[in-house]
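User: Hi! I'm working on a homework problem where we have to compare a predicted structure to a textbook description. Could you give me the structure for the chain below?
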Amino acid sequence: MDTMMINTDSIVFLKPIVHNVDVNMNSKDYMIAYAVQNELIVENFKVKGEKRRFVCDFSIDLILWSPDSDLITCCMLKQNLIQVWSLSDPSWRCKINENAINIAHISWAPDNRHLIVLSEFNFKITIWSLALSKSTVIANPKCVKNCYAFSKCSKYMAVVERKDFMDFIGIYSCDNFQHLKEFSIDCENAGEVYFSPVELVIAIVAAFSEYKVLFYTIDGRLINSFTKADASLGITSFSWSAQSFYIFVGDYLERISILSGKNYNEISTLNLPESIQSSKTTVYRIMEMSCNEESVLRDTAEKWEFYAVDGERPVSIPQFHLSKKGNHKASKTGINLLVVSPDEQHVAIVSCSAPNVIFIFNMKLFSLSDILIQNEKIKGVTWHPRKPILAFFSGCSHLDLWTPTCCVRMISPFVDELLIKNIKWSTTGESIILNGKQCSTLLTLPLFS
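Assistant: Happy to help. Predicted structure tokens:
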């Protein structure tokens, strides 16, 4: 593994963009799309002054780039209206009106020319063809999160459907979204559906209190079924690693079951400790500073601060033991976040019972390598697209980065303007968009690309 060191001279926070919604970035050309009320602005951050403006009918609530970065969708939720603009052909435009059905979610199909619109309460899925100006309706999607998924080859769409009080998987062709096949599912209540990142294999995660993951071929043959008898509360998280080598299943008992991507059998179990005894696990803590110290740091040229390494043992994990009468442990509520690095060498985990702690496991050794202890609740984590660098935030103005050799905090100069609510790496990994409620900024880290 390459040693990752952070050169703080490369850190640049660009001036915040004031807008009403999130920012989406086409990292290949460094084009940023953002909205100011009903105006869509597309700006090239590498070419000063290069801007394009598109005017929508109403105030924009959501922006979504197409996978090929040529089309941009603007959604106006109150009006149930969608408008689509083209960068390559500014004269082309499209308007989609969902009438009285409220829009819950929109996404692009892999072919870049179909929009998937999920209605409120999963009443229906409408697939809009921008090339043919027509739509296809899937009438019975089940009201669960991630009720549809696309295959890696972009040829098939799998949908969890509910008919006559029974659950089915519907298979559709991505060429014309015609129904190809459906098959029943061997569980009481189907939940989320996932396609394998490399094969035509579908994983169905059971919903509610049933602990079961089912693996099917695209023609409906059951390959394997994974269950745990002692996990009656069900599954909280599921993740397929990028090359399908591992499958991670988190539950309410603070365990992560690791399945093989070859035969879908369990090969190991990771448990979150309540205290750290081993010196092989590095414990990072952010140093607490007073308001005066923070002000001095912002006024200087420093843009970062290192996390301190806690060498004492044992180290108790905060929040696992809450103050209660008697000696009873705090009730555990499961794995909240579970993200796998693109190289499949690390997995970062956040538990609901320790929301200010990130556990990082080394998948070569199946062991806990690092623990990152924050002062605030972790709101989001995301891996660099190509390197073992983890970015995470806690809803404040700063951004934190972990590598296998250190952990640092990026100090934002916009402390009173930007409270981060989500982040997104560029495809090259040389920059991160930091999105707040009222403004966003671009943090450039060119040495990370």
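For your comparison, note the following. Helices lie at 291-299. The radius of gyration is 23 Å. Good luck with the assignment!
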